[in-house]
Write the structure tokens for this entry.
Amino acid sequence: MDNYKKAIEYIEKRMLDYGKKYPTQAAALLSGHRCPYTKYLIEAFCFIASDIENQNDDNLNKLAQQLVEIICPHYLYPQPSSVILEFIPKDGFMKTAKTVKKGTQVSSVSISGFPCKFTTSTSVIVRPLNISNVEKNRNDTHDTLQLVLKKNNQTKWGNVGKEPLSIHLHGGVHGEHRKAFYLYYNILKKVKNVSVTWNNFTKNFSPDVFQPAIRHMDDDYFSSLYPKFSFKSFRLFQNYFHFYQSLLFIELDIFSKLNIPDEIFEITVNVDMEYNDIIPRDFNFRLNCVPAINLFDDEESSESIKFDNSKIEHEIEINESYKKHRFPIFVNHVTGAINNERFEYKPFVSYRHELDDKNSGYYFLRRKYDEDDQSTLFIQIIRSKKRNNDETKNSSKDETISLNLKCSNGSLASLLGPGDINTIDSKRLDFVNVQNITIPTEPVNPKIEGKELWTLINSLSLNYLSIANVDYLKKMLLLFEPKNDIANQMRINGIDSVELSSEPVRKIMKGGVVHGQLMNVYLNSKNFTNIGDMLVFSEIFSNFISMYISINSFCILRVIEKNKKKKNQKEIIYECQITGERNLL
């Protein structure tokens, strides 16, 4: 319809121009004296032209999708539901800190007769500690935030662990994100000093004992959904837009510097707090928390495939008893079997073709969406030359393909409420209980229509000079926000301008002179929840920029709040030096 309207508008404009130049000859074309048959002819012509344009757009979209499937297929994965889990130590079961490893699977109550399964995105150290009280006080010079931590009676202080304490800043069940962002900013940027008190003894620490957990989100953090060779900045921004709660973690590094014999100790944080109308409570500071995603390994639900060499691809079908609540996201392993002989197929995107076992082969996945935005996963089996030659000699051999899938529960998981995810599948973790403290997010499909995929392909070959173009930068960030959320679109449009220094910055690094750039990014505070939201956005943006700076260079990034209420009033929210991670070739 858009192309049809454009064609009509174009013809109308050309007819007006022609009518002004040749009024006598163009009388039949002008709207006031137009012949009905002329009108029908024009509409038919525009309809045919728009249909051709639509077919060209569809073909280009299909071509772009096929390119993305080969270059970076993980960009086309649907984004399953995500949630924050809290592990609660059982009384009398824990005397030391214990680790709940990444990939731990938990289950929910039944929804429509079926439980949903979630997998933890990272490991978490569960300590027999709890925050018993949180108070905010005001004196003449600054605010104080007091956190009272208590360990259980059976635990010796030496068994609590020396690693940093992970704290999730929780806005509440219904997403009071304003308070969580507010705490995030004040704890990381406005702290003057930190003191720990026990037995009437106090030890002081510098503000840098608090660090954002975002800095430790390495490739392993996202490996549940994305492979290690995927674009890290894409994963971070998509995580920020889809599930910002997973980024609101801070780490408190004091345990390696203390030896506290008491059961109760108090952490006092002296901070110049903003937004004094917000009062933090104990439920805003949660221990033993970890993000989890609605993904799980599945060997039983996929139907076996009878390999047919005459077919280009085979549909991955789910067994009828699982069809309503299990949806394949991608494939973990593909195995072929002929009689008692088994073959392991490797992913085609590994690009290790014909280098290993000649008896093996490769598989290639393709996802197709229908008009209702429902997806179907197809698999192409690519055999080695030796395998195909053997089959030609003995055509009676039938091969059965078995699949190990990574599945989700689709939109079923988003029906869960707080506390509905409450069962740990592993019996080894009998020392903790689990509950979800956030409502699972809605699953989101990727953007595959329009020119988005071409923009994505183009973005993989850019450098930081292209990022300095604000309009193009906004188009790129919209790629990471597939659900068209108004708040996220406002954040993207909140990038007011980007400035690059005219002269390069030089620094001595590792005994040599390295050239870099100074980049100033100006954000409009009206487009963000508060300054804490802007800080999280800035930290993600710094990772994004690093992917476009060469490995032999650096960038000094400054993110500046541009408050338009008071002219020329600016505040530096975030500043850091970024080392380039972009390969030269």
Notes: The chain has four domains: 2-71, 82-294+413-436, 297-408, 452-579. The mean pLDDT is 80.
